[in-house]
Amino acid sequence: MMNRRVRRKCVKGAQKLDLGDQLETEDADYLKLNADGFVDWTRLPDDTVIQLFTHLNYRDRANLSSTCKSWRSLGSSSCLWQSLDLRAHKCDWGIMASLASRCSSLQKLRFRGADNADSLINLRAKSLKDLSGDYCRKLNDSTLSVIVARHKLLESLQLGPDFCERITSDAIIQIAFCCPKLKKLRLSGIRDVNKDAINALATHCPDLYEIGFIDCLKIDEMALGNVVSLRFLSVAGTTNVKWDLASESWSKLPNLKGLDVSRTDVVPNAVMRIFSSLKSLELLCAFNCPSLEEDTTVYTKSNCHGKTMLSFFNDTFTKLSPLFPNIEDERTIFSVWRNGSKKKDSNLDEFMTWVEWILSHSLLRIAESNPNGLDQFWLNQGADLLLGLLQSSQEDVQERAATGLATFVVVDDENTNVDVGRAEAVMKGGGIQLLLGLARSWKEGLQSEATKAIANLSVNPAFAKSVAGGGGITILASLAKSMNRMVAEEAAGGLWNLSVGEEHKGAIAEAGGIKALVDLIFKWPRGGDGVLERAAGALANLAADDKCSMEVASVGGINALVTLARKCKHEGVQEQAARALANLAAHGDSNTNNAAVGQEAGALDALVQLIRSQHDGVRQEAAGALWNLSFDDRNREGIALAGGVEALMNMANISDDLKKSKLEV
């Protein structure tokens, strides 16, 4: 969800970069500057170029292409275009048509949403091997069929983890026909995967070694037994599985090493049948399977068959440690594997790569559902597992791990209560340094999810203090300047939570956070309710400090907040904007601020209108703002002229009526 901090300016046909301090060392290698401070476009990370390109209008793209030799040469830069991440950018048809000729060497592409998917129809990347999309709920069969028909060398296709409700078995059949080299297929939320689709995969994709039909409503269990090339299978979260048929059919898969049945209603008899029949099976992942948890003997019996079983009721690190003989600390198995000797074990790499992927999926889904009785699991191993996955070499695994950390610590969504024990487990495991490191990355997906975790954890005062001490405020202030709305939204949320602490307000101001928050309001006046509410909420907290209140006013905050109060219809934004105006009128040089708020065009009228809101919070904050403003003589006159006295009286009557009705009840 995030954007990098690289500001670009065209200077005489060359591109001069003002580099922030948020780039990681390995990323900075792409941006070697010459003595004049310029960089060759062909050395820029692909996502940096895409970001610039997508924010230019058509004339500017043409000018850039005609004036910059290096831009015209992008098509010859195979290094640059081997991998692209379009998730942060809304690429229209014109953009994709312009980029298509430069994508001959493209091998990996990530996209987000149906809009990007529709634009990808223009793409003809003949070398494309890896295609991954998320937020694909609106993606349909016809669009997906055209995309795969033009990229017949695909080896990996992943859509999810959200639900792909409009994708049917017909599209899966087209995938099988068009992509004979397919090795990995991961699809989430398909309504019905029928036997024709699965048999087509078995017939036309002889190298297909991994299938993930995750959170699907129905799959043909018997047909899956025909995909004899399978080494890894995940049906996590899939419903309506006939486990007697599944255990019979899947027991015939001669090469199956890993099976993930987490979050399903799998029964013990089916598991035992699979254990006894599948000689090749090495690992069964079965987190959050109610029937198995009622009969824990299945876990002990798994050992008798020489199988490894992962669940809530055993320690994952302990179960996986036999793969790494002589290991001193079981908790380091993932890092030991990643940092092992140069002589790699390809089978182990394949196995552990899959384990990381399924664990990241299961832990995130379990954190989202927040079932009761898992406190000890999260404290004893869940937090450490997420922190371990946060260091994965698989970017999507890292992102889900960060999202998992952001999610599992919040035990009350409505009141955003953070579990102290879980937050402490994250801190104890070095989570602050890991998350701040990812937030510094130029990869926007990692920035976004890491910042979300930092924001949620910062509700805890101890964590907030550690974030501030680790330079987190500077990072968040920088990320709030992002051109990517989702990145900026998470950063604004982090600043909002940190601004609760009096000791952090000055640091936010010093880091440029106040101006960044004000700028956000002007940057996304429409379609950004989340970012606007968080920016206004942070400014409201900051405005309660005298020094910060003056800075909010000096950088245009009054105009920005009045604009929100006048034009935004979202109640959360209205409430925070009114609260911020109330604090501005009461703090700083109160006479100056008070007069400035009252004299801002439309301010008093907007607050009077908010008093008529149907939402208690909006009415109360607007009334508080008018009360504070009424200490200025001119403001009192303006409030009366705007109908404020009548509105306040009506509000008082409504409040009395509510009190009476509650007493009667």
From TrEMBL:
<dbReference type="InterPro" id="IPR011989">
    <property type="entry name" value="ARM-like"/>
</dbReference>
<dbReference type="Pfam" id="PF12937">
    <property type="entry name" value="F-box-like"/>
</dbReference>
<feature type="repeat" description="ARM">
    <location>
        <begin position="556"/>
        <end position="587"/>
    </location>
</feature>
<keyword id="KW-0677">Repeat</keyword>
<feature type="domain" description="F-box">
    <location>
        <begin position="38"/>
        <end position="84"/>
    </location>
</feature>
<feature type="repeat" description="ARM">
    <location>
        <begin position="471"/>
        <end position="513"/>
    </location>
</feature>
<feature type="repeat" description="ARM">
    <location>
        <begin position="602"/>
        <end position="644"/>
    </location>
</feature>
<dbReference type="Pfam" id="PF00514">
    <property type="entry name" value="Arm"/>
</dbReference>
<dbReference type="InterPro" id="IPR001810">
    <property type="entry name" value="F-box_dom"/>
</dbReference>
<dbReference type="InterPro" id="IPR032675">
    <property type="entry name" value="LRR_dom_sf"/>
</dbReference>
<protein>
    <recommendedName>
        <fullName>F-box domain-containing protein</fullName>
    </recommendedName>
</protein>
<dbReference type="InterPro" id="IPR000225">
    <property type="entry name" value="Armadillo"/>
</dbReference>
<feature type="repeat" description="ARM">
    <location>
        <begin position="512"/>
        <end position="557"/>
    </location>
</feature>
<dbReference type="InterPro" id="IPR016024">
    <property type="entry name" value="ARM-type_fold"/>
</dbReference>
